[in-house]
Amino acid sequence: MASSVQGQVQALASRQKVQLVAGAVAGPLFVAVSLAQIPFRDGFDMTRHAFSFLLNGPGGWLQTINFVVTGALFLFASPGLRAGLGGRAGVVAGVLLGIVGCGLVVAGLFAPQPSYGYPPGAPDGMPTNLTASSIMHGIAFITAVLAYCATLAVTAWRLRQLGDLKWAGVCGGAAVILLAIPATQSTGAATVVIYIAVTAAFLATSGLMLHLRRAERLVR
């Protein structure tokens, strides 16, 4: 009986480690796949167009898959984050990361409407009347960003409780940077801020997931 229980515990710990690896891979995969498409997308300008614009035009299906797979990886990783952090804060962080995943999946299924000159022939600016798809994408994206910010903030608080001040600082800093996205949406710097903030959050998350995988706090 004891060996059976031990085997189940080891299997659960192994699954949680795989979940954490999935969480580490998700962000960098999204950025890499997005960047790889840009040279093949005529008219795409990183100073004006966020990665979401890749959902439009020829090859938009690839970015849809990119969003959905990234969201699914974060959803899969959420129990691993919960176990790695432990306590009620771990439960909250896991749920919030799941919301991030759902938000990315929905955002990938609803493309923003062509605008700011992309794809070629699109209006050179924001359309006056937004389509339902564009509104859904915007709601899903902002929901994911806010949930991501909350995930990192709760994680930072929990890590500080555990005495892991280095990673608490990394997660807390990434959460603050993410807040710049909704704060700058009406400014000319919005697109650049999105790139910087999302990349910083993805890198912080990847490092955190690998750090938790090495820690001996799994199986909760």
Topology record:
Layout lengths: L1 H36 L22 H26 L1 H23 L22 H30 L3 H14 L1 H4 L6 H25 L6
Helix pairs in contact: 1-2, 1-7, 2-3, 3-4, 4-5, 5-7
What brief labels describe this structure?
mainly alpha, elongated
Number of helices: 7
Oligomer: single chain
**Largest sheet geometry:** none
Q: Into how many domains do the coordinates divide?
A: 1
Task: Explain what this protein looks like in three dimensions.
This protein is mainly alpha-helical and 220 residues long. The chain has one domain (12-214). It contains seven helices and no strands. Helix 2 (60-85) packs antiparallel against helix 3 (87-109), helix 3 packs antiparallel against helix 4 (132-161) and helix 5 runs antiparallel to helix 7. It is elongated, with a radius of gyration of 19 Å. It starts with a helix and ends in a 6-residue tail after the last helix. The mean pLDDT is 90.
Q: In a few lines, what is going on in this structure?
A:
The protein has 220 residues and is an all-alpha fold. 72% of the residues lie in helices and 0% in strands.
